[in-house]
């Protein structure tokens, strides 16, 4: 690589916006920074990309190291590179969005994060770097994607009620939806499969459903479009 | 910045996928490389991001330097960082999509590109680096976005016929559309404004239209969704 020394070389990081849904609202995983800069501030999990490491591998490694989260849905969001966004000098960050089921719990990992926890989006602490901007873009992306892709199933338990599904859409879109209209829209989608099981322990049992990924992918390959 | 030397530092580039529409098919701007690696091969316009330069500024500068194109619609696509994608060592590239009107013509700029030209997507030469993969992702993104955003107006002349608009959608989606159905879908969108002008010199004159960006943006802020 000796002939490449002439090129400008910013440092490169990955940052992960991990969304979860607790039945009522959206939440996000934050870590508390153990090192300067922004020591003790809350931040998105992330860190430097190694020279021999692919970008998504770096995002998964940092998530694992800082939050113990593994095997999550992960998708590249956008790259943030405004000059001055990091006090250490020029640092460009490739941001990812992760979607996580509610039974997954972040835990402090083995690196420079001193804590890891879920925060409701409505009660966020001040964030390090430009992480509030990254989070804003991630929420916008989630809103856009959820309308046209059945992403919600990555955020719900494996068996869910249509009420839970609607609550998720309402939380992401930030608006309330008409129940009858919502269910009518879901009807044509036979990849949302009703089960012979009901919720228990509630005053009125509700039917459980599951998401049939194979059926959805087959439809999807045929040019089908999901829309809520 | 002396305390940052410890971080791994890949080189960082931008690459631009510039789409145009010639009335029949989609085309893309390629430059012929004047330097190694891949000297004399065709490639997407692009180059190294400077240390004090924002990412989009770098993309616009490279476009200007290599193709003379200015003031174009530009949007970040995705970042490509697979280890081994560049023979010079670790080089991560932030890719952009540009949309350009047909009256804009690329021209050889003042840098390391020895030629710049439009190529129909159906007749592409072999491309340098992983630029065929970047181009594939860009086409997918364009297909996805065009259905839900009135992006097409960035690619058409300022005054266009509904036949031209339909031809553009057909070229991007790679499918033929029913004319009556297409026009019925456009009807509710009053940001597509019919003019009192018609095409001339054709056996049958067709009405010209224009896109009203202000009207669209006002609707858009109200949560309106465009769909074809």
Q: What features would you describe in this structure?
A:
The first copy, chain A, has two domains: 2-148, Nucleoside Triphosphate Pyrophosphohydrolase, CATH 3.90.79.10; 151-221, Arc Repressor Mutant, subunit A. The termini of chain A are far apart. The first copy, chain A, is of the alpha+beta class. In chain A, strands 1, 2, 3, 4, 5, 6 and 7 form a seven-stranded mixed beta sheet that branches. The first copy, chain A, has five helices and ten strands; from the N terminus they run ββββαβββαβααββα. Chain A binds chain B through residues 1, 3-4, 7-12, 48-55, 76, 78-79, 81-83, 88-92, 94, 147-148, 225, and chain B through 1, 3-4, 7-12, 48-55, 76, 78-79, 81-83, 88-92, 94, 147-148, 225.
Structural class of chain A: alpha+beta
- Total domains of chain A: 2
Strand content of chain A: 25-35%
Distance between the termini of chain A: 50 Å
Residues in helices of chain A, as a percent range: 25-40%
Write down the overall geometry of chain A: elongated
Q: Counting H and I runs of at least 4 residues, what is the number of helices of chain A?
A: 5
Uncertain spans of chain A = 1-5
Beta strands of chain A, count: 10
* CATH fold label of the largest domain in chain A: Nucleoside Triphosphate Pyrophosphohydrolase
Write down the Rg of chain A. 20 Å
Which CATH class of the largest domain in chain A is shown?
Alpha Beta
Multimeric organization? homodimer
Specify the CATH architecture of the largest domain in chain A: Alpha-Beta Complex
Helix and strand pattern of chain A: EEEEHEEEHEHHEEH
What is the CATH superfamily classification of the largest domain in chain A? Answer: Nucleoside Triphosphate Pyrophosphohydrolase
Question: What is the average of the pLDDT values of chain A?
Answer: 90
Main sheet: strands, sense, barrel of chain A: 7 strands, mixed
Largest interface: A-B, 32 and 32 residues
